[in-house]
Amino acid sequence: MLLAFACLFVVLVAAISIVWPYQWRWGIDVRRLLGDYVEADPPAPIDEMRRSLAWYMQVDTDSNSKKLDCLWWCLRIALVAIAAEVVFWVLALWMR
Any idea which UniProt keywords this protein has (predicted)? Predict the structure, then answer.
């Protein structure tokens, strides 16, 4: 029974870490985009603007990817812990 409670605790910790509010990076600052590329003197070529947009989007994706990987591991741990918890409870009830 003690192992079942330990697994429950692991599930709770993993669930809290999954739903905890995180700071995600995303989006483009339109004012900066317009100021640096469209309204610049002379205006930047569209290919340069696209390259810059792609680069900044990849930086945001890389930053978010690390957090998402951690959250996926928390989910996997929670799933294993909840399965183990069910097994331990069934064993505890069966042994009574």
Answer: Membrane, Transmembrane, Transmembrane helix
* Distance of alpha carbon 54 from alpha carbon 60, whole angstroms: 10
Q: Domains in the chain: how many in total?
A: 1
Task: Answer yes or no: are the C-beta atoms of 92 and 64 closer than 8 Å.
Answer: no
Task: Say which amino acid occupies 84.
Answer: A
pLDDT digits (tens, 9 = 90+) for 8-60: 999 999 999 999 998 998 888 888 888 888 888 898 899 999 998 999 899 99
Q: Which domain holds residue 12?
A: 2-94
DSSP letter (8 states) at residue 34: I
**Dihedral angle computed from the Cα positions of residues 17, 8, 82 and 3, in that order, rounded to the nearest 10 degrees:** 130
CA–CA distances in Å: residue 28 to residues 55, 62, 94: 11, 15, 58
